[in-house]
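Need a sequence for this fold. Nothing fancy.
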């Protein structure tokens, strides 16, 4: 049950927007939250690079896990093609589990065609079912739903088909989706699928591009439209950064981790807007290597045989596809976000003890008798003299007033200053 504090927060969060009662109900009552989205990691061991950076896939995934921990997200979703085939005895999938277990917050995943393809047939539930069960999802199917934070419902669809770039949304899954939406009303709802249910350009323009979409994806979108609580649908697969809207639902296609531009996304969600931020991995030289491989693949030449390099711009997206605020309030436009540059920590200069320890002028006017008493003797055993106990316990301030010539005459009573304080196949 939602706590009173969260309930009041939700009311305050939407009432200040001046929305109609119907619009308020459609937004739902929830506190702001942030989630990470990582797709097409293609993690594997011992396979050569193509336009996918397979040899670097583990390094890339480890880098993103570290970044997500630093950004303290509430949960993370992995969007399919998480591994380049489970591997012999599920070696690749076990490696994936080992890496992402380092996340500090909960995570979940959907399946892509790469996850269920290989030399040997892949049983989805045998390979992946135990990990969903470990997240509290009791299901005999490879699609699921759960509530990661109060007032928020997420749905993981399965559009994967073995050894096929084309996705699928079957009738049984559609009936399940209808029932799930009925059972979880009044909750802000996000849908995740590996394949795009609303294809971005150029994948909406016929052969060969439609080989990478879900032919019956419109069926899923019709079901979404029956619920006023579905406000966001996120996908991977096409290695493209693109934001589109249909029936008040934002459809966000996200870039790949193992394929240029080697990036992942953060979604900051409030009752007012969804802010999307895109981050690349921490290895510029490997990003450059991935770009060169990407613009040399067959799809780049199908996009433009004269200028295949322009295909990279599709993967990158515009500012309104990468760092953007998507309003949940009717009538407000989407706006580009200014990405904050990390501030470099300022280096503190070490303090010089000698100049700072110089006495103020007022200390120079001490009585003569006191000056004489503080004047060091030439006796080498002066430190042990009981007659100087009271005087020598008044430290540096007075000893600094002693002329340099006298200090040289007694080096033993000086104190040393303290040290300054990152192919040819087109299989998506």
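Here you go.
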């Amino acid at each position: 049950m939602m706590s009173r504090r969260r309930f009041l927060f939700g009311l305050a969060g939407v009432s200040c927007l001046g929305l109609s009662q119907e619009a308020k109900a459609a937004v739902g009552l929830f506190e702001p939250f942030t989630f990470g989205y990582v797709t097409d990691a293609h993690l594997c061991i011992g396979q050569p690079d193509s336009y996918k950076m397979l040899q670097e896939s583990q390094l890339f995934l480890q880098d993103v896990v570290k970044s997500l921990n630093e950004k303290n997200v509430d949960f993370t979703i992995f969007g399919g093609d998480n591994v380049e085939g489970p591997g012999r005895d599920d070696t690749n999938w076990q490696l994936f589990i080992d890496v992402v277990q380092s996340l500090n917050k909960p995570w979940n995943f959907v399946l892509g065609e790469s996850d269920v393809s290989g030399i040997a047939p892949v049983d989805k539930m045998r390979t992946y079912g135990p990990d969903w069960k470990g997240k509290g999802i009791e299901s005999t199917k490879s699609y699921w739903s759960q509530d990661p934070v109060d007032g928020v419902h997420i749905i993981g669809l399965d559009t994967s088909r073995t050894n096929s770039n084309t996705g699928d949304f079957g009738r049984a899954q559609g009936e399940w989706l209808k029932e799930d939406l009925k059972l979880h009303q009044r909750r802000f709802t996000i849908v995740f699928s590996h394949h795009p249910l609303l294809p971005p350009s150029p994948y909406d323009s016929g052969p060969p591009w439609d080989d990478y979409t879900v032919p019956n994806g419109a069926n899923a979108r019709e079901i979404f439209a029956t619920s006023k609580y579905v406000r966001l649908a996120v996908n991977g697969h096409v290695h493209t950064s693109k934001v589109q809207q249909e029936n008040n639902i934002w459809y966000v296609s996200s870039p790949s981790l193992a394929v240029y531009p080697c990036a992942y996304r953060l979604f900051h969600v409030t009752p007012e807007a969804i802010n999307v931020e895109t981050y690349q991995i921490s290895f510029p030289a490997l990003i450059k290597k991935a770009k060169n491989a990407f613009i040399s693949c067959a799809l780049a030449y199908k996009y433009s045989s004269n200028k295949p390099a322009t295909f990279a711009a599709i993967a990158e997206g515009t500012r309104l596809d990468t760092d953007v605020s998507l309003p949940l309030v009717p009538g407000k436009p989407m706006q580009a976000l200014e990405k904050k540059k990390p501030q470099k920590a300022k280096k503190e200069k070490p303090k010089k003890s000698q100049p700072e320890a110089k006495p103020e002028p007022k200390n120079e006017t001490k009585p003569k008798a006191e000056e004489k008493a503080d004047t060091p003797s030439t006796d080498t055993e002066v430190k042990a003299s009981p007659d100087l106990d009271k005087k020598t316990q008044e430290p540096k301030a007075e000893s600094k007033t002693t002329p340099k010539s006298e200090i040289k005459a007694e080096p033993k009573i000086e104190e040393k200053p303290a040290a300054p304080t990152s192919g040819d196949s087109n299989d998506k």
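For context: The domain at 20-336 is CATH 3.60.21.10 (Purple Acid Phosphatase; chain A, domain 2).
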